[in-house]
Design goal:
The chain is of the alpha/beta class and 192 residues long. It is built from six helices and seven strands. The strands form two sheets. The protein has a five-stranded parallel sheet, sandwiched between helices. Strands 4-5 form a two-stranded antiparallel sheet. The chain is globular, with a radius of gyration of 16 Å. It starts with a strand and ends with a helix. 31% of the residues are buried. The mean pLDDT is 96.
Length: 192
């Protein structure tokens, strides 16, 4: 049985991102996957890495529980909106606080290389935006996707990392949103 973790990074529980996360979950459950969830907005933690990497902050209980879910999962599904080219603030803080040396990766002594401690996991990024995905890629270079996919997940050994972008959300009608929800459901059914 495949173990899926859905990480919802949108702070609004009534957002279209939440609807996409629910659609994916429904599809994964239809394929008999074990599904767990983390809704970042529900977590109680300081999103600021107060001392950078100079001094380790003690992880709050909610972060410890979220990290255990990440470690237990085979497949991570990140659902987030693109805000100013990046992730919502608390989602970025979630990454900063959890994807730490010794947990997600391990620098090798006297080397520029590192060990990837999350090998064996795969991921899917589902992101929404108020521009076409091709425009976000061509004009801006997909900064939020690159940060999460390349600079975080792949850096820590998660591979492959697939991406599904949905936009333009603000001008979409219900028929278009239903089509996107069906796509998210199908991704869940395929456990992709």
């Amino acid at each position: 049985m495949k173990k899926i973790l859905i990480i919802n990074a949108h702070p609004d529980k009534e957002s279209f991102n939440t609807a996409l996360a629910k659609a994916y979950k429904k599809g994964a459950l239809a394929s008999y996957a074990k599904v767990e969830e983390v809704c970042i907005s529900d977590l109680n933690f300081d999103p600021n890495l107060q001392n950078g990497y100079r001094e380790r902050m003690e992880l709050e209980d909610d972060l410890l529980e979220a990290w255990q879910k990440i470690k237990n999962a085979d497949h991570l599904v990140w659902v987030h909106p693109v805000w100013w080219g990046g992730l919502p603030a608390k989602a970025k803080g979630f990454v900063d606080r959890l994807f730490l040396p010794g947990m997600a990766y391990q620098p090798k002594p006297n080397s520029v290389w590192w060990d990837k401690l999350l090998k064996g996991k795969t991921a899917r990024i589902i992101t929404t935006m108020d521009q076409p995905g091709w425009y976000y890629w061509l004009v801006y270079g997909r900064p939020s996707i690159n940060m999460l996919k390349k600079s975080t997940l792949e850096y820590c050994g998660v591979k492959p990392v697939a991406v599904s972008s949905f936009g333009i959300v603000k001008t979409s009608d219900q028929a278009q949103r239903d089509k996107w929800l069906k796509q998210a459901y199908q991704l869940g059914v395929g456990l992709k």
